[in-house]
TrEMBL record, chain A:
This is GntR family transcriptional regulator. Residues 16-84 form the HTH gntR-type domain. It comes from Lentzea waywayandensis. SUPFAM superfamilies: Winged helix' DNA-binding domain (SSF46785). Keywords: DNA-binding, Transcription, Transcription regulation. SMART domains: HTH_GNTR (SM00345).
Automatic annotation (TrEMBL), chain B:
PANTHER family: ABC TRANSPORTER ATP-BINDING PROTEIN ALBC-RELATED. Keywords: ATP-binding, Nucleotide-binding, Transport. The keyword ATP-binding applies. The lineage of its organism: Bacteria, Bacillati, Actinomycetota, Actinomycetes, Pseudonocardiales. This is ABC-2 type transport system ATP-binding protein. It comes from Lentzea waywayandensis. The keyword ATP-binding applies.
TrEMBL record, chain C:
One of its GO terms (molecular function) is ABC-type transporter activity. The chain crosses the membrane at residues 12-30, 72-94, 120-142, 162-182, 189-207, 300-321. Pfam families: ABC2_membrane_2 (PF12679). Keywords: Membrane, Transmembrane, Transmembrane helix. This is ABC-2 family transporter protein. The keyword Disulfide bond does not apply. The keyword Kinase does not apply. GO terms for cellular component: plasma membrane.
Length: 136, 287, 325
């Protein structure tokens, strides 16, 4: 079933609004290639059944995605992904950068680093290359 | 069409005004949180909208029709005490409610009762848990196929599982039928995640009325030196002050002056700010 | 809506049905046993004509067996209205208001008036039917006892009056409406039941016999109507002069006092006394009597009064419920 493509996980205590969480999760799924053009996003009712969020919030998130040009609502049919955010570099298990990161990760593990060390290293290097003020 | 509007509505019980000078117009298709502390006038407001209580002053309109001495056919009301006949079984209760309505969807009721596992249709109402009672009462409310659903404290007394199921039923109704929902609660946490719009009531008056995101976006919390408050622009809602530092909740404020930090409030602190302000106003004249 | 009202009144309706079935069965059985007893004791003539036709031994045996049962049956019909008022009328709306279930009804599409009427009809009509049937059966039974039963005391006897004609229906209507009204005003079942009981008993007690004054009385002159009992109710007496006009009470008293204290010092005999009265122009004594055949009129007045109260109380009930929140 198309609706099995993505399921939202709403964290009520994250402090991030439900609406932003949905937008982010759709974008992330698109980046990872889990959602491709032509895929239908779950209907508001399906999201309500799964998570008991306000359907208006879901629709608002979809409108935001539509404004960003990522999806398109078709009357009576649902909301469909129209664009791909996945690139060679990010989509699929065999993307080159992903393979390289996986290799680095296994080296770290072999070197005895615990997960906190890995996170700290990752964040530090990310800060160097993507300073906060440059991020949108 | 505006599902529910009030024009200078007031309700006086003897010398006490439970609701006073309330004016608002709720947007259609939204989930509206009616919040305020206990005794703020939420129940009175809902009971007036349901046609159970006659306003002392002003007038309410439901879908453009003035509310007079009866419930509008497009309105369903869930009373706080979930009035159900305790000697009847669930099945009989549904039949009684069906008999009292012209427009009735037995399928809708069965659908809602079917949403939670194990509502025994042969069980007497008095044997049901608070959560199941609420769900039966909501099922009856939805059987009327309302366009405006008024729920008085729908989540009070519910355990987390029943709370989640109840919210799911209400949200599914919104998704399926575009029903406008007004939910009251004295606990903000109950409603924060599921509502689009808020109506904050205290001391019988409307304190805040608007889309939650917009309301939050229009307010700032500024923290800075207490001696320097005059530099701050905007409408002051409420303030807490220590000897040196002031924390101000502002509406439509300008940019934060030098030396002040600036943050968007979360809903909780916004509501607290308004409640503090309304308390200060109401206690001030009495001295 | 009617089904809903039936379901909500189920306990009361089943109780009424039980009372009706058991009561009717018992009354039919009692009557047939009594008729057998009258026949076997050879009291048939006595029951039909009374007086000299009765052998006093057989009559006493019969009365020892049956008069308590007669009393119980009469009391049952007398108290049924108040039982209906207390157990059906008073809780009808009080229970809904007390439990808040009226809010369920008031927020559905059925109008408040229709809801009220449906509840009233479903609760009241079966109660009236039971009262009428049992009243008829008791009357039928007591009639079969003839002069051996309490009906010998005549239609004006307060207990006989209370169980006869339209009076029980009127009392039931009044008791029911009273209970319903107090229930709506007090919003408390127990309060309504207690108050309805007290008020009904008081009103009923105060009004006993009050309607009799509206029934025209017959003037019976002692000479042509001797003391024979014909079931009439004497409501006054006095003396007539030669022209057949009533003598003012003060004068007739003065004269009769004078005639009683004869100059000889010994009390006068009946003949002497009457002769003395005639000498003073008081020719005949008379009695004012409500004939038994006029009792129906008193019942109609009675029903009008209690029925009128009932209508006012029901109107008050509807009015109070419409203002209810």
């Amino acid at each position: 079933m198309l609706t099995d493509v993505i399921e939202f996980r709403i964290d009520r205590h994250s402090g991030v609004s439900t609406y932003m969480q949905i937008v982010h999760q759709v974008e992330q799924a698109m980046r990872l290639g889990l959602l491709a053009p032509g895929d239908r996003l779950p209907s508001a009712r399906e999201v309500v059944d799964a998570t008991a969020v306000n359907p208006n919030t879901v629709l608002k998130a979809y409108r935001e995605l539509e404004r960003e040009g990522l999806v398109e609502g078709r009357r009576g049919l649902g909301t469909f992904v129209t664009k791909s955010l996945a690139s060679e570099a990010t989509a699929g298990d065999d993307a080159p950068l992903r393979k390289e990161l996986a290799r680095w990760m296994s080296l770290a593990r072999e070197g005895g680093l615990v997960v906190e060390d890995v996170d700290a290293l990752y964040s530090a290097v990310r800060e160097e290359h993507y300073p906060v003020e440059e991020r949108s | 069409m505006i599902p529910l509007s009030a024009d200078s509505v007031g309700k006086r019980y003897r010398s006490h005004w439970a609701v006073r000078d309330c004016t608002f117009a709720l947007p259609e298709g939204k989930v509206i949180a009616l919040v305020g502390p206990n005794g703020a006038g939420k129940s009175t407001l809902l009971r007036m909208a349901a046609g159970l209580v006659r306003p002392t002053a002003g007038e309410l309109e439901v879908f453009g029709t003035p509310v007079r001495g009866g419930t509008h056919p497009d309105v369903s009301f869930l009373a706080q005490n979930r009035p159900l006949y305790s000697d009847l079984t669930v099945r009989e209760t549904v039949r009684v409610a069906a008999a009292m309505n012209d427009r009735w969807s037995a399928e809708r009721v069965q659908e809602v009762l079917g949403l939670q596992a194990g509502v025994d249709h042969g069980a007497k109402i008095r044997t049901l848990s608070a959560g199941t009672r609420t769900q039966v009462a909501i099922a009856l409310a939805l059987g009327r196929l309302p366009r405006l659903l008024l729920l008085d404290e729908p989540l009070s007394d519910l355990d987390p599982l029943a709370r989640d199921e109840t919210l799911r039923i209400i949200m599914a109704e919104v998704a399926d039928r575009g029903t406008t929902v007004v939910m009251s609660s004295h606990l903000l946490a109950d409603l924060r995640e599921v509502c689009d719009h808020m109506l904050l009531v205290d001391e019988g008056r409307v304190q805040v009325d608007g889309d939650i995101e917009e309301v939050l976006a229009r307010h700032r919390i500024l923290v800075g030196p207490a001696a320097d408050e005059s530099a701050v622009a905007g409408t002051l809602v409420s303030a807490t002050r220590t000897q040196r530092q002031a924390t101000l909740l502002l509406k439509d404020s300008g940019p934060a002056p030098q030396g002040w930090t600036d943050a968007e409030p979360d809903l909780e602190s916004l509501v607290m700010g308004y409640l503090r302000a309304s308390r200060a106003r109401s206690s001030a004249p009495r001295g | 809506m009617i089904w809903a009202s039936f379901r909500l009144q189920r306990v009361q309706l089943l109780t009424l049905l039980g009372v009706l079935v058991v009561g009717a069965g018992v009354l039919v059985l009692l009557r047939s046993n009594m008729v057998d007893a009258i026949t076997s004791a050879q009291l048939t003539q006595c029951a039909a004509r009374g007086g000299s036709a009765c052998a006093s031994d057989a009559q006493n045996v019969f009365l020892a067996d049956w008069s308590n049962l007669f009393q119980i049956a009469r009391i049952l019909i007398i108290v049924m209205p108040i039982l209906i008022g207390v157990f059906i009328g008073a809780p009808l709306f009080a229970q809904e208001l007390e439990n808040g279930t009226h809010v369920l009804a008031f927020t559905q599409s059925v109008s408040r008036t229709r809801w009220m009427l449906s509840k009233l009809v479903v609760a009241l009509v079966p109660a009236l039917v039971v009262v009428v049937v049992l009243q008829y059966l008791v009357w039928w039974w007591l009639t079969a006892a003839g002069t051996l039963g309490p009906r010998v005391n005549g239609a004006w006897n307060p207990v006989n009056f209370g169980i006869d004609h339209v009076s029980p229906i009127a009392y039931t209507l009044f008791a029911f409406a009273l209970g319903a009204f107090i229930g709506v005003v007090s919003r408390r079942t127990l309060v309504a039941m207690t108050a309805a009981f007290g008020v009904f008993v008081a009103v009923r007690f105060v009004l006993v016999g009050q309607v009799n004054r509206f029934v025209p009385s017959e003037r019976r002159v002692a000479v042509d109507a001797p003391a024979a009992r014909d079931g009439g109710l004497q409501v006054g007496s006095g003396w007539l002069d030669a022209a057949g006009l009533e003598v003012p009470r003060a004068r007739s008293l003065a004269v009769s006092d004078a005639c009683r204290t004869a100059p000889s010092g010994t009390p006068p005999g009946q003949e002497e006394f009457l002769a003395c009265m005639r000498e003073s122009g008081l020719m005949n004594s008379y009695a004012l009597v409500l004939p038994e055949s006029s009792a129906w009129l008193a019942h109609l007045y009675d029903a009008a009064i209690f029925g009128g109260f009932a209508v006012l109380l029901l109107a008050g009930t509807v009015w109070a419920l419409r203002r209810q929140s």
